[in-house]
Amino acid sequence: MKVLGISGSLRRDSHNTKLLRAAAALLPPGAELELWEGLKAVPPYDADDDASAPRPEALRSLGRAIAAADVVLFSTPEYNHSIPGQLKNALDWLSRPLATSPLRGKPVAVVGASTGLFGAVWAQAELRKVLGAIGARVIDRELPVGLAEDAFTEAGRLADQDLELVLADLLAELLGEVTPAAVPA
């Protein structure tokens, strides 16, 4: 089973990318996480550009990666009580045309890490709302990882074992959303 991980952060040492890597270590046998790292290359959405073909390669790459994945796991920081603009921009591109969006009907989950106490809970809620509007099958749970500078061990795992258990449970729920007909033989 293929899990696509998308970090909403562009930083090289992103806490949210670390959270996706921590999630990869918790996946059951037979499941693997592929990290998509092309967010920085996605151009600003412009309907004039969207009308011309072909779409920029970064968007074609993202669309292919989502289509090839069984599920998608987003990890988002919180910028001004919402999701980062570059992530929202990529989702705006992916939502057009809505009927053929690679996210339409795709099982997705959202987690988040931030250096503050609340672990990006507002951004997670906003991202779930946007993904739902696009037609994704959104798991209605969150995983707030606050004080992210101290949230990971040197080995890259979550330092808080309770948080790690919640993340493992969220991943199990996400993987459980895949219907047997959707999984390639």
Provide a quick synopsis of the model.
With 185 residues, this protein is of the alpha/beta class. 36% of the residues lie in helices and 15% in strands.
Main attributes of the structure:
185 residues; alpha/beta; Rossmann fold
Describe the protein in words:
The protein has 185 residues and is an alpha/beta fold. It has a single domain, classed as 3-Layer(aba) Sandwich (Rossmann fold). Helix content is 36%, strand content 15%. It contains six helices and six strands. It has helices at residues 15-24, 47-51, 57-68, 85-94, 121-134, 161-176; strands at 2-7, 32-36, 71-76, 107-113, 137-138, 144-145. Strands 1, 2, 3, 4, 5 and 6 form a six-stranded parallel sheet that branches. Strand 1 (2-7), helix 1 (15-24) and strand 2 (32-36) form a beta-alpha-beta unit. It starts with a strand and ends in a 9-residue tail after the last helix. The mean pLDDT is 94.
Q: Please indicate the percent range of residues in DSSP E strands (runs of 2 or more).
A: 15-25%
Assign a percent range to the helix content: 25-40%
As for the number of domains, it is 1
CATH C-level class: Alpha Beta
Spatial shape? globular
Quaternary state reads single chain
CATH topology: Rossmann fold
The average pLDDT score comes to: 94
Structural class: alpha/beta
CA distance, first residue to last residue:
10 Å
